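Project outcomes to date are best conveyed with an example. Our students and postdoctoral researchers have been running inverse folding experiments weekly, and each run begins with a structure described purely in tokens. The record below, which covers 476 residues, was selected by the lab manager from last quarter's runs and is presented without edits.
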């Protein structure tokens, strides 16, 4: 049984912080307003995982001119997109009320995509100024395949039915008690829905930046204390939902899945290739790793999918469920690596003489689902590598290797070990220890028993020499 979870990493709730009226114009009056955004975004980024969808006005409000951009504002927004994964949503060029011109609406999308063409940034979200929209707006959106339109209608608590008219859950301003916001967040969290918080980080809704910062921190301190929240944006949530609805996952064996998607068939290809989370029941498997197209995925657990076009891929286990988070590229294979190399035979103890050379046989099996290289290592009581041999073992096969060593030069009982180091994954899959019993008595640095053995071996020769000596003496 395999499914794509409703939210990234099987989160309980998707949380979006929508902030309106960030301005890119070089016009002087813009700077004081954008200063609130600095305080706001600094607070947001301090949590290390919260994202925002930023409504960007690209030119001087209420003008109709193509005045220049403020380079600092442009570069800062670039950092927010590429390093933190915030969304640059369009909020028109001039922030006019309806009816708007095509130039006002689509011109802003051209502006944003032009400024960030080096990272192939795609605008997916159009935030209607004043929350007002008419048929013109919806037509412009259709013309350019802009999938998400945002109103200011409150009360949204789950994935929107009509993305073109996506509302908000709550609005926070200086007149709203943060505790009422927190209570609403808890309700959405317990129902497993989508929570969208909305504000203007400007003088429009706050007396000063400290007042705003205090209220926002109170809310975010609470949200970030909850487990399993997906901090996301409109563009990401929409893309995730579309990929989830269109991806085809087929099971090819007990451990192999194929993930197929054709992005050109979704919204004319205007979509972000974001990670999706695949849930697989692994009741009958021992999972040792997950590969995507032959490359091992890291183990992890995140509440944030990463920044634009540098998204996270990872897997995690929770009870009998395996959650594999990947960015589908078109045709991908996911392979569950069940237990890989196991030492199936190795002596538990060995008796040797002082300084004697000895050999042990070690059998290693590949219990995994792919062929692999294992390095079988022999380590002494000081954890020093005595000998290592690399062998390739096919999936399901096993191999026996001989390892040779020299016994310690003092009598005693030593604990040595054999390791099966998985060269492909870089981890020791299995290790077994055994005792080395070294016998012998030292006399002046020489083992008496060995001397005795040597004497016994040489005895016939000595006897012969003696006999010859006696015979020679008798003849004389
Ligand atoms: Zn606005």
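After processing, the design step wrote out the following sequence:
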């Amino acid at each position: 049984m395999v499914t794509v979870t409703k939210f990234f990493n099987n989160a309980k709730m998707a949380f979006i912080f929508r902030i309106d009226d960030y301005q890119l114009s070089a016009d002087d009056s813009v700077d004081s307003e954008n200063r609130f955004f600095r305080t706001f975004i600094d607070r947001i980024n301090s949590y290390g995982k919260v994202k925002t969808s930023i409504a960007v006005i690209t030119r001087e409000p209420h003008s109709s001119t193509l005045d220049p951009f403020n380079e600092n504002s442009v570069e800062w927004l670039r950092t927010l997109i590429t390093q933190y994964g915030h969304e640059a949503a369009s909020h028109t060029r001039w922030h006019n009320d309806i009816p708007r011109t095509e130039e006002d609406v689509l011109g802003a999308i051209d502006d944003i995509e032009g400024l960030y063409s080096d990272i192939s940034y795609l605008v997916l979200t159009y935030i209607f100024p004043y929350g007002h929209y008419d048929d013109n707006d919806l037509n412009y959106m259709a013309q350019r395949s802009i999938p998400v339109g945002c109103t200011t209608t409150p009360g949204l608590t789950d994935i929107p039915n009509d993305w073109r008219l996506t509302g908000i859950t709550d609005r926070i301003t200086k007149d709203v008690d943060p505790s009422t916001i927190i209570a609403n967040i808890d309700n959405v969290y317990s129902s497993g829905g989508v929570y969208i918080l909305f504000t203007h980080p400007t003088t429009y809704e706050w007396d000063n930046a400290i007042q705003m910062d205090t209220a926002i921190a109170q809310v975010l301190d609470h949200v970030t204390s909850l487990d399993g929240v997906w901090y996301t944006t409109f563009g990401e949530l929409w893309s995730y939902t579309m990929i989830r609805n269109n991806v085809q996952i087929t099971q090819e064996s007990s451990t192999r899945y194929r993930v197929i998607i054709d992005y050109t068939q979704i919204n004319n290809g205007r979509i972000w290739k974001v990670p999706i989370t695949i849930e697989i029941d692994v009741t009958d498997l021992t999972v040792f790793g997950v590969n995507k197209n032959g490359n091992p995925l890291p183990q992890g657990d995140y509440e944030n999918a990463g920044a634009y076009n540098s998204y996270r891929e990872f897997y995690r286990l929770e009870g009998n469920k395996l959650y594999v988070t990947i960015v589908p590229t078109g045709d991908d294979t996911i392979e569950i690596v069940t237990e890989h190399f196991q030492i199936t035979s190795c002596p538990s103890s060995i008796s040797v003489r002082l300084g004697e050379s000895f050999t042990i046989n070690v059998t290693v099996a590949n219990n995994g689902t792919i062929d692999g290289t294992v390095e079988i290592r022999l380590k002494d009581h000081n954890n020093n590598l005595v000998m290592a041999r690399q062998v390739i073992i096919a999936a399901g096969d096993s191999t026996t290797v001989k390892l040779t060593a020299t016994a310690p030069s003092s009598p005693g009982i030593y604990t040595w070990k054999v390791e099966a180091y998985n060269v492909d994954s870089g981890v020791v899959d299995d290790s077994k220890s055994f005792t080395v019993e070294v016998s012998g008595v030292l006399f002046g640095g020489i083992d008496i028993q060995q001397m005795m053995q040597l004497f016994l071996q040489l005895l016939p020769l000595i006897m012969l020499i003696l006999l010859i000596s006696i015979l020679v003496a008798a003849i004389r």
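Residues 9-236 form a domain with the TIM Barrel fold (CATH 3.20.20.370). The helical segments are 30-46, 71-84, 102-115, 135-144, 178-191, 209-223, 234-246, 448-475. The training component of this project remains on track.
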